[in-house]
From TrEMBL:
PANTHER family named in the record: SULFOTRANSFERASE SULT (PTHR11783)
Top-rank taxon, per record: Eukaryota
InterPro entries for the chain: P-loop_NTPase, Sulfotransferase_dom
EC number: 2.8.2.-
Family the UniProt entry places it in: Belongs to the sulfotransferase 1 family.
GO MF terms, alphabetically ordered: sulfotransferase activity
The UniProt record lists the keyword Transferase: yes
Residue ranges of every copy of the Sulfotransferase domain listed in the record: 53-312
Name of the protein described by the UniProt record: Sulfotransferase
Keywords assigned: Transferase
Species annotation: Salix purpurea
């Protein structure tokens, strides 16, 4: 890292230390972040320049990002791979196929496979780098029932913390914070609403999806994704079952059972290494009911209903 880079990182750290903080989250532009990602975001806001062909995979954590990364990667690399079964998805976790704006570029802005026009981010719409918002780049957003997103997030963070011998927050404590808007990249409802409103304003630029509708009819969404990304399936491809092949390759069953995702590590050579298996838990709709009481569920439903009221979105 250059001396300039080090000074800059130090000054982001100093700025972050002055931001409101609750537990390990710091608040910036109305959203809550773990400091490491916030530093990356601030750096991206200052320096990131997209390629004009970039497509951004956007989401709040634990809403289906891994699946969406796999699908979009498989869709846009399919012609390069035709006739070969060697998709990178078989040997790398989807997060190592599609870089994360606020982590991978902050660490090394030049490190990317320029042939793959995909960048992912959890940054809320209102905090995206101006270079992204003012570009002609397309964005795909995925979100999910808030209760399932919360439960998935709690398990994910608790697993990671236990693996580092950090005592995780209890489910109840984390739930209270989530309901008051404090969670990674939360408030959850503001994250969803930011992209929802932007997708209404710029429908040709932003595709808004939900995990539930993707599960219900994956094939039509895979076709929709390809069309949106400017690489629709040809009739010939459809007849050859290309859509179904991509769905199978990216399915929870297939990916979670691959050797790399069972035993491999994401960002293996960094202090932020984690087991790939943490990205694959159950992959179901409605698992919240096995973790939260009916009262907790009703409370979060009520909050979401109130926050989304009048937006035209039901989640
Ligand atoms: P659960 O914790 O409810 O099982 P993200 O990818 O944004 O981190 O979201 C993680 C959620 O997506 C987890 O949900 C995970 O199991 C699920 N998931 C991961 N890969 C998937 C896939 N290929 N298909 C469907 N769901 C998947």
């Amino acid at each position: 890292e250059s001396a300039e880079g080090k000074n800059e990182a130090k000054s982001y750290k100093e700025m972050i230390s002055t931001f409101p903080r609750v537990q390990r989250w710091s608040c910036y532009e109305g959203f809550w972040y773990f400091p490491m990602f916030l530093e990356g975001l601030m750096s991206a806001q200052d320096h990131f320049i997209p390629q004009s062909t970039d497509i951004f995979i956007t989401s709040c954590p634990k809403t289906g990002t891994t699946w969406l990364k796999a699908l979009t990667f498989a869709i846009c690399t399919r012609s390069r791979l035709s006739g070969s079964s060697a998709s990178s998805l078989l040997t790398k976790v989807p997060h190592d196929c599609v870089p994360l704006l606020e982590y991978d570029f902050a660490q090394n802005p030049m490190k990317r496979d320029r042939a793959v026009p995909l960048v992912s981010t959890h940054v809320p719409y209102s905090s995206l780098p101006k270079s992204v918002v003012s570009s002609c780049c397309k964005l795909i957003y995925i979100c999910r029932d808030a209760k399932d997103a919360f439960v998935s997030l709690w398990h994910f963070i608790a697993d990671l913390q236990r693996s580092k011998n950090i005592e995780p927050l209890s489910l109840e404590e984390a739930f209270e914070l989530f309901c008051s808007g404090i969670s990674s990249y939360g408030p959850y409802w503001d994250h969803v609403l930011g992209y929802w409103r932007a997708s209404l304003e710029f429908p040709e630029k932003i595709l808004f999806l939900t995990y539930e509708e993707m599960k219900k009819d994956t094939a039509s969404h895979v076709k929709k994704l390809a069309e949106f990304m400017g690489c629709s399936f040809t009739l010939e491809e459809e007849e050859e079952g290309e859509v179904q092949k991509i769905i199978s390759l990216c399915s929870f069953e297939k990916l979670s059972n691959l050797e790399v995702n069972k035993n491999g590590k994401h960002r293996a050579d960094t202090s932020f290494a984690m087991k790939n298996s943490v990205f694959f838990r159950k992959g179901e709709i409605g698992d919240w009911a096995n973790n939260l009481t009916a009262e907790m569920g009703a409370r979060l439903d009520y909050i979401m209903e109130q926050k989304l009221k009048g937006s035209g979105l039901k989640l």
